[in-house]
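Bug report (template v2)

What were you trying to do?
Predict the complex of my protein with PRP.

What happened?
Run completed; filing so the output is reviewed.

Input:
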Amino acid sequence: MSNERYLTFALGKGRLANKTLELLEQIGITCEEMKDKSSRKLIFVNEEQKLRFFLAKGSDVPTYVEYGAADIGVVGSDTILEESRKAYEVLDLGFGKCRMCVCGPEEAGELLQHHEMIRVASKYPNIAKDYFYNKKHQTVDIIKLNGSVELGPIVGLSDVIVDIVETGSTLHENGLKVLEEICPLSARMIVNQVSMQMETERIRKLIDQLKEVCQ
Ligand code: PRP
């Protein structure tokens, strides 16, 4: 045990990290240090189990994992698709379920039918591009936004948006609708490709234990 190296987890900050920690606790992996909400520390260690955890912005998690700064990452499949980093996606953790959709005012539905040149606002320009160019074969103008994307069609920046829909209440409260569904989303575990070779046994065991509790 003492010769083991630390396995490092990068967790997407917020709800995903909290849910992941709950899941890890169920398989006996704990990190007491992380429970202190007043702490400003960025990295937390479980000396006994030789584990380290850090909280990162969700969109940075695949980057840490690709470069091996983290062996394991937990992040939404939206981020995995958008970032297209090299890593093994090993497990659907079954929480954080939502959908990536094309949304807009009902009238905009018509614009999606005839390959018209339209404006699409999104925090996910790569997902939007892939969907419109490769799946729908529709040439569109994609405008990258960083949040509150629903504003796009409301203030006349774009015709439609590509965004995450969870409960649908943000759309509903802003008079918008799901026009097309792109794909379902959920939290996924990703693993650095070299770590998977070097620490196969430990990581496989972890995946198997998590499978038992998350399905
Ligand atoms: C996400 C997403 C939608 C909203 C969907 O935004 O971009 O705006 O949640 O959830 P709902 O269907 O349950 O209403 P987030 O809260 O991450 O904020 P942001 O858009 O400002 O990044």
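What did the reviewer find?
The longest helix spans residues 200-214. The chain has a mean pLDDT of 94.
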